[in-house]
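FAQ: What does the model actually see?

It sees only this:
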Amino acid sequence: MGKGVLVDIPRCIGCGSCTVACKLWNDRAFDENNPAFAEKPIMCSENWTTVDIRRVEKDGEEVLRFVKMQCLHCIEPACLVSCFSKALQRTPEGAVTYNPRLCAGCRYCMLACAVNIPRYEWQKVLPNVTKCQMCHMRMQNGDAPACVSVCPTQAMTFDSRENVMDKARNIIDASGGGYVDYIYGEKELGGTNWVYVSDVPFEQIGFKTIEHHGLSSNPTSYYLKGFHSWVKRILGGGLVLFAGLYFYTSRRNKILEEQGKNEKA
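And it is asked to produce this:
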């Protein structure tokens, strides 16, 4: 399963350092029209990490919760399974990465993602699909992703996924009921490498859940079995059809040309 990150939502103070670190490390532009840190932030081609400011009720009072979101890096990624050009790959460390040189621009990955993470650079002449790549080059060197490394309250923990899951369970057990007895990402989509713990229900802070939104506990790739074979059959059938039409049209035009020459003679 590789590495994982635990996000302890109540520990986040909303400083926004993670969104800045993400942009600096990945060379993403700052865009005032598409804020990465806001109430209802915009996940776009320049924002790979967002922090959503949420106002929720807890113990009869309104409280603020800051919800960091990025690609969840599924253990069995649907985007990877849907990509027939192999532009998306999963590293041994668990990061789901994107290689623009292999991308065919079909955008099937965007359709396959159940949590709507991949974005397209519509504004560019030569666009790419973009998303968080979990700073996989840092991970290869044993370092935490840039967003994790700058968190001043240690709201995020980077470790093996097994250790991350153990820490999440320990936090919940030690809270004495103060935290929701649920680890988000343990079951969702077959399991993800980014997991969350919270003191308020996840559906109240913008998460798609199995119980309230019908999010599957099976990996989305489970439903995409045979997808590539069907795509290849469709493409292959289309090529055969167009080749047949081409040869038919060429032959027909050649016959008409010969008939025209004979009539002139």
